[in-house]
Amino acid sequence: MHRGKGMKFVGDSRVPANRRPNIPKDYSEFPGKTEAFWPNFLLKEWLVGAVFLIGFLSLTVAHNPPLEKIADPTDAGYIPLPDWYFLFLYQLLKYDFASGPYNVIGAFVIPGIAFGALLLAPFLDRGPERRPAKRPIATGLMLLGVAATIFLTWESVAYHDWEHQREQGKIVAEAEVDTEAAGYLIYQEQGCINCHGENLEGGAAAPPLVGSAHTPEEIADIAVNGIGSMPADLFQGTDEELQELAAFVSEISNE
């Protein structure tokens, strides 16, 4: 090769020298099938979202949220209940094959398979057909998942002990309790404090004594003979101690 021969400089650029304005695509060739994302489609999305937001805010104003008593980490008898959208998983953990020694299966394996299949659905079903009747496997699995979710949610709601749920979370009035009183010392010694709480506020195993409005005679009879799920013969003190305890609890329960 001689100097100056056999070498050529070629200019090639696919970027236009003069930039054109950002003109949106002409959708007139597909009438009624496509529309511009901005502002047409996005405006509709905002309007629908605004309707749901206003409806949600109206519900929160019209109906007060159901509040429970202040959380007590020392209350081992409290049975928590998840929100409604997790009730199907809560119910799943009640079955023998997904609880106890198999708790890992109910908590991780089954939900992991279900949600993993949902995430992988676009990759597993790559066919061009979009009609549900033409996609029997994907449609069947989705209907199975929806049916299982509805059934488990219904089972959880239908067979849950809602009366116990309301009692354990009920907000009760706090009363001034004289922890130095003779009746309170008997209340401690007889083990009443284990179920009814330090301030007679109750717990998961026993109702609150504050606001129960029992007479001393009724309280003495309950302490000896029991009531409901409370067994008899729990009180092991003398008659004088029983009367002292009954008078103390009656004074607190009628405040």
UniProtKB/TrEMBL annotation:
Its main location: membrane. Residues 27-154 form the Cytochrome b/b6 C-terminal region profile domain. It is found in: Membrane. It is a multi-pass membrane protein. The chain crosses the membrane at residues 46-64, 105-124, 136-154. Residues 178-253 form the Cytochrome c domain. The keyword Protease does not apply. One of its GO terms (molecular function) is heme binding. GO terms for cellular component: membrane. It holds the Pfam family Cytochrome_CBB3. Coiled coil: none annotated. Keywords: Electron transport, Heme, Iron, Membrane, Metal-binding, Transmembrane, Transmembrane helix, Transport. SUPFAM superfamilies: a domain/subunit of cytochrome bc1 complex (Ubiquinol-cytochrome c reductase) (SSF81648), Cytochrome c (SSF46626). Heme c binds at C192, C195, H196. Component of the menaquinol:cytochrome c reductase complex. Belongs to the cytochrome b family. The main subunits of the menaquinol:cytochrome c complex are a Rieske-type iron-sulfur protein (QcrA), a cytochrome b (QcrB) and a cytochrome c (QcrC). This is Menaquinol:cytochrome c reductase cytochrome c subunit. It comes from Jeotgalibacillus soli.
